[in-house]
Amino acid sequence: MTPEPAPARSAILEARTALGIELGSTRIKACLVDVDDPSLVLAVGSHEWENEFADGMWTYPLGSVWSGLQAAYADLIRDAERRHGARPEALGAIGVSAMMHGYLAFDAEDELLVPFRTWRNTTTGPAAAELTGLFGVNIPLRWSIAHLYQAMVDAEPHVAQVRFCTTLAGYVHWRLTGRKVLGVGDASGMFPIDPGTKSYDSGMAARYDELAGGRVPKLAELLPEVLVAGQPAGELTPEGALLLDPTGALRPGVPLCPPEGDAGTGMVATNSVAPRTGNVSAGTSIFAMVVLERPLAGVHHELDLVATPAGDPVAMVHCNNGASELAAWAGLFHRFAAITGSPLDADAVYTALFSEALAGEPDAGGLLAYNYLAGEPITGLERGRPLVVRTPDSRLTLANFVRAQLYGVFGTLALGMRVLADEGVGLDRMYAHGGLFRTAGVAQRFLAGALDAPVSVAETASEGGAWGIAVLAAYVRAAEAGAGSAGLGAYLSQRVFGAFAVETAEPNDDDVAGFASYLEHYRAGLTVERAAADAVALKHAVALKHATPMKGATP
Q1: Which of 56, 74, 268, 464 has the CA that lies 20 to 30 A from 500?
Q2: Alpha-carbon distance 192 to 204, whole Å?
Q3: Percentage of the chain modeled with pLDDT above 90
Q4: 341: left (phi over 0), alpha (psi -120 to 50) or beta
């Protein structure tokens, strides 16, 4: 008698699976989960890619989007075959996520008008300032509406041809399904959302249409339709199936969930969608999300007002610069170990450096590290120059140096979070995720000191947003079956996170005081950072690329 297949293999063969794909800043990741128990990761795949600095803009060619997606999906297929002896040919659900914001503009023939302008571009200052004044809410530089209006202000020739604008996740979803839709969390990085209707704020849209004066179609025609988590968002077309899997093995007809941004998938991946919960996501950028109980009292340029995938209001502190500079230094130490004849793999380098940082002084011995590879709107810098700054009486040790670099990852974030604290926003728990937190007890501890709040890391942390969007894809199937009626928060708590272990780091008094001292000097030293950006020119801007983690490395 033929034995029954193992549960995981059976789920794959019977298409009881949900596929999540996330296009991050340095990696495209794919994650396959059991649709009935999304806590079970069945297979993963990834592909490394990098942005380009072309004609003064950070961008990714759309050809790289599709070649990268295909590579990540093929890697996942190989992983499923290796682990379970089964090749997925049909899926139960699919979800697409990507880095938020930015500008993808198309004409009436659905042709891209200008290269994709990513969230990292900071050329939209005049437009963002004018729109902030018009709406009475903060419009960050990276929001899609700021990019569109700045193109109008600059009288760019392509503006007259614009008929549709979307985000990277919205673009991929559109090509896979034919539907121009967007999850409410990602949409909240395009244009302000009304928490009551969970769609674009109609009053602000009317003001914008009047300001635009007919130079582009009205926003209702220009932007994607907004959907909330659990709503069906179309099915994989035959053309879409071939875009994802050129071998032709993947069958069309798979339902998709609303496409979401990386902030939304980070909230899902950390079970942080209820009021008074928050999360920090650390990668090429770093940002914190706190779900609000009430509206903020004032307008703050450090804070974005966005939404959870279910449409609830969120305050976001988004920093353009995250762990890339730390990765560059880790690469330097990786090479040093190799030339000494004692080579270490990438993760071992991070483990050694992070462990050494624990021996550093609470204030990093007077060292300051600025991770600014690009401009940073929160601190008012249009351009970045990575810096290490110290006084002659500082203590330059390896432990202090690494601690300063880790503090530097959290520096700008901490400035924004202090604005949120001054607003009296309550926070019961903060979760952290991203590869930075894989080395147990180090970055998590320092972040707790930086925020003066407990920081928890769940065992799902290294799976990140690709797993989060896979969970949202599974939630669509659960909603169809009536299992999602209690809402996204209840679904996550009851059906997804019940079995996960969570480690929590309480703030250490010495770390809190030490980081506060570091941050005081960090804030004062921004004058040096600004002077460096003005004085030190980029000699090869067109070829400039961000530092990326070594293969297999922690961030």
Answers
A1: 74
A2: 8
A3: 77
A4: left
pLDDT at position 464 is 77
Model confidence at 543: pLDDT above 80: no
- For residues 134, 138, 144, 145, the Cα torsion angle rounded to the nearest 10 degrees is 0
Does pTM top 0.85 for this prediction? no
Amino acid (1-letter code) at residue 351: T
Alpha-carbon distance 519 to 517, whole Å?
Answer: 5
DSSP state of 452: T
Element (H, E) at 306: strand 304-307
The model's pLDDT over 409-456, given as tens digits with 9 standing for 90+, comes to 999 999 999 999 999 988 888 998 878 888 888 999 999 999 999 999
CB 130 within 8 A of CB 149: yes
Domains contained in the chain, CATH given: 16-243+253-270+461-502 (3.30.420.40), 324-456+510-538 (3.30.420.40)
Question: Which one, of 160, 196, 162, 165, lies nearest residue 180 by Cα?
Answer: 165
CA distances from 28 to 31, 47, 169, 551 (A): 10, 5, 12, 14
Q: What angle do CA 326, 332, 336 make, to 5 degrees?
A: 145
Residue 318's identity, in one-letter code, is H
Beta strands at 455-458 and 429-433: parallel, antiparallel or unpaired: parallel
Residue pLDDT, tens place only, 367-386: 999 999 988 989 999 889 99
